[in-house]
Amino acid sequence: MNNAPGTGAGGAATPSDSKNGSEAQLSPELCLKIHDHMVRARVLEERLITMYKQGDGYFWIGGPGEEAFNVPLGMLVNKGEGVEHDYLHLHYRSGGVLIAMGADPVDSLRQMKSTATDPYSAGRNFASHYSARKWNVVPVSSPIEVQYSMAPGTAIAQKKCGGRGITIVTGGDAGTAEGDFATCLVWASRKGAEVPLLIIVTNNQYGISTPYEGQHGESKISDRGKAFGMQTATIDGNDPEYSYKELRRIMEYVRTERKPFLLEAMVSRLYGHSSSSGA
Question: Which is the most buried residue in 31, 98, 229, 240, by most CB within 10 A?
């Protein structure tokens, strides 16, 4: 499901170390760590679903099937507070990112039960709606894809302050029909004012119950970035090793060039959109 990663419009320079970054083998220790985080993320999702069915929560939504991409992303984030670290504008399928960053799975159970000890929202928000000031994780919002219009703000601040901190925003394929996605592409790519923003679309090929086919005129969502002169790629997000290597390479490009990159990751959706929909 991948094109030549890092190929962009207008003959612009591609991210460095493309060949070496893609072909270098990950160490066995790193592969085991990725696998461990993936298992923990999947077990957490299954526990949250069970809690909902047992009446220990009012609603479930999450990302089982996206762990192979989300875990490498979380492992590669430069976490911390402030513009010198990475900002994350995530959505409600990003549980694997938080687990890989070191979040305690029990905190997700607290949020599911709407307890005051929920560190993400003090019991005020849905499951998988994370927020962590200490790691620059901007509060996840239920309105679809609004994070795409907010993300350029932190990226602009990082551009002005310098350093290697970048902004990362993630969302789903169906949400790219929203105007917020177009807003993100415009504000990220203005000539002479490009910002260090990694724009990620996790394409699970369903918008709630609507199949991907028939909803898009482009062959790849990543192609939409080429009109804005930015580097783009579509990768197999179900391959954890490949996802790790490509994310590492692409994030280094955004850190050093201080320019945006549009990445589409092909992932899987194992269950319904949420507890309110069927499979």
Answer: 98
Residue type present at position 35:
H
Contact 196, 159 (CB under 8 A): yes
Cβ atoms < 10 Å from Cβ of 244: 21
| CA 228 – CA 164 distance, rounded (Å) | 23
**Mean pLDDT, rounded, for 107-134:** 94
Residue 207 near residue 128, CB atoms below 8 Å:
no
pLDDT confidence of 22, banded at 50, 70, 90? low
Nearest to 67 by CA among 40, 104, 96: 96
Nearest CA to 206 out of 173, 170, 169 is that of: 173
Q: Which residue type is seen at 214? A: G
* Model confidence, pTM: 0.89
Helix, strand, or coil (residue 88): strand
Three-class SS state of 83: coil
Residue 180, CA distances (Å) to 57, 101, 108 in order? 30, 27, 28
